């Protein structure tokens, strides 16, 4: 759905804006792309879970999905689906629908590399790696995709298997009007036919070779390699080992006309290739769908049969990974990054070949990175590519600002770069030998990673290398041709420092700083991969963002709308004196938290969190409520819970903690909730959090708050009670609704002031002892700027109360009531209090007071009056 971004938000609209702060040292100048390519404000996929090497895919209906591993230590991977076109995401069902008790209840095995792919109907196929041992596969859709799934383990039981790594999916599902050159299709073979390829860690050939498997349901796979080499027998490879084609690790492509599969990878002469460079292997299906590869011969594997794409004399082309993509004219386009001992030679290249040549004649490689320290693109890692219209492709990579080895720690700054490459084509759409045009752009608005990116795989733990990004990230395109890039943003530098976590805080010896926040950048201007202009919102600061109604679903995919979690808008406003950041969120109905919590399985706490990044720090402001309807308001710095895996320990869960004792703590703030008599999507409730700017980094009118998002979360425990055990079991908040993301700078566009709802009153009610109990209340600071106050005296019961701090006021117009909570003293002794006042005069209005020292009293006014306006 399209979300409106407002240059100004009137008082009544209350749409949350975002403030962003420019750090003292901002990134290097951006690379400006020809054709005006630009990207909108990045979206945060999940405000709670983090992971490395995120994957992204769009099905034929334009639905967006993201996945990624949380590590073999958790045996769990994330899998998200978007209900609003990719602005916000929900946890996908994995055997058991997600609940507030356990957000991602997927059973092991899992937690390693993930991949997602689709057939034409929108059915989604998912694969998850477990401990380099076996794979978990799943299928969901095509209707209501993500509400339920089916799963299987391949091979069954994870036993007796020689090992697996880096699995990829390719789906053969040609449209009815697609020309057919496939023996499988001609023989009436069932489609979709799903291929699952992985690195056979101990098989014959370079890197163990690729192990190809096939399935017609995405759950039961059988061997898809018909050729076998002469029997071999070693300590690690059993007699009669299945043939493993060349090409392990390279992300494959598939041709919908011939059914052929393609993989590219680096090879050298010492293992049998004709030169040191990048080579292509092609697998051709027979009538059963079994694949026959170029390097398979009756006498053994012959790597000289491979197709040479390019010589790479300066180093291996396999800096995770060599990636192929096929455009609409069936041209193959490949991207690779050189792995060289000379940092300046670690650059990204692209080449293309047409179907007319049988993909045997490849264009001269073109370097698409600029090797410049000035632009921050000096050294590159992790290339990926997505092709679109004839000869068109977007290549992406991470680039650093220093010409040093990526694995060394030299305070590098890393950004995402993209180059849109357009190869010349003939009248049929086939690429020609002409020189392509390139358009290079820096995608990320600020560095997304600092210092080293370790390239030693699981060996990074021995070198104390940071592997929080894992090994890759992905680009795809939407139905307009606009690039959508999912990447990790670890610039927050988070690391667990709470008591009980054994890693020395900040040491980096075992625990690596930087929570990998899963982030999506979408192209918002310039030419897309279908040759037409694309459009989208700019990154300019705005005061607020709307959110459609009806998308606060539980279950989180395909469930029932929860009005108590249904966000309608969000807004930030910096007070005129610069001392208060007013954080506002509209929610359809906040008047009945008990009903809301009861409708969400396992929920006891309802959390309404607004979070943003200022400089390199994530801040938040939040309101938490329970069935008792006594909300608390708080703010502070986001913190992390770090879990451990084969690549040491790193942040897995982001927390936005409440004030007080616990694993994590925030700062108490004041706030209000205002609900009309009949809350609805067009007349929602409004919550306001009045945050002391000192509690969130001291933003000023010229500070930039980036990637502001608001979220409605259901939780089984408080954030401050989270620990490593609860994070390991994924007992973390579950997102029910969200609105994301935008930038805010008060000096550019400041939101409207918070709404004012005043309550005044005084009078007497019956004492709990003898006589009368008197009270007075003044809750209208928003109008008169005086200090809010509640005081009461009950001489017959020995009570003499005076408030010292008002923390919350909850107005309910349907009940003509206000509930005021905070702290104070009773006869000089500190207490907390809750006071409820109902509008009216003597004999009509009512007042009640509850103190934490045991005093409680309520009654109808004997005299005086209460006014709520």
Protein architecture, described:
This protein has 869 residues and is mainly beta. 59% of the residues are buried.
Give the percentage of residues in beta strands. Answer: 35-45%
Q: Which structural class should the secondary elements be placed in?
A: mainly beta
Poorly predicted residue ranges: 1-30, 230-241, 501-507
Which bin fits the share of residues in helices? under 10%
Shape: elongated
Mean pLDDT: 89
Q: What is the strand tally? A: 58
What is the compact description of this entry?
By secondary structure, the protein is mainly beta.
List the helices and strands and how they pair.
Elements: E1 5-6, E2 38-39, E3 43-44, E4 55-58, E5 64-69, E6 77-82, E7 89-91, E8 114-118, E9 124-130, E10 134-140, E11 150-154, E12 164-172, H1 183-186, E13 193-200, E14 210-215, E15 222-223, E16 253-254, E17 261-267, E18 277-285, E19 291-293, E20 296-297, E21 300-301, E22 307-311, E23 323-326, E24 332-337, E25 348-353, E26 366-367, E27 379-387, E28 392-400, E29 413-422, E30 437-442, E31 449-450, H2 460-463, E32 474-477, E33 483-489, E34 517-525, E35 544-546, E36 553-554, E37 560-561, E38 567-574, E39 580-587, H3 593-599, E40 605-614, E41 617-625, E42 632-637, E43 639-645, E44 648-655, E45 667-675, E46 685-692, E47 705-715, H4 724-728, E48 734-744, E49 759-766, E50 772-779, H5 781-784, E51 789-794, E52 799-812, E53 817-826, E54 829-838, E55 840-841, E56 846-851, E57 856-860, E58 863-868
Parallel strand pairs: 45-52
Antiparallel strand pairs: 1-35, 2-34, 3-34, 4-5, 5-6, 6-7, 8-9, 9-10, 10-11, 12-13, 13-14, 14-15, 16-17, 17-18, 18-19, 18-22, 20-21, 23-24, 24-25, 25-26, 27-28, 28-29, 29-30, 29-31, 32-33, 33-34, 35-38, 36-37, 38-39, 39-46, 40-41, 40-47, 41-42, 42-45, 43-44, 45-46, 47-48, 49-50, 49-58, 50-51, ...
